[in-house]
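Hey,
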Amino acid sequence: MLQLQQRSGFRGPKSYKFGFQTGDECNPLSRHEARSRDGVVKGHYSYVDPKGVLRVVRYEAHPKYGFRVLLDAFKNNEKSEKTKSEEGNKITRKRH
């Protein structure tokens, strides 16, 4: 069964918000994004890769600092371990 959910809206000039979810249990897909009045865009999307692993990617785009990926979460069949590095509390992942 295919399901589709959609959200949209905004808060003042130069801002927006939207999102959707679709797919089924075996093949979910989603995307959500919002832009604030100061031009910062934050969002995330998810999909199932060819190996059947659900991937969730969070991102941010800043007018001054540019685009960066904040998180790539691994779920389902792939094990991951988050560890904090002592150098700048950077998050790294060890794959098993």
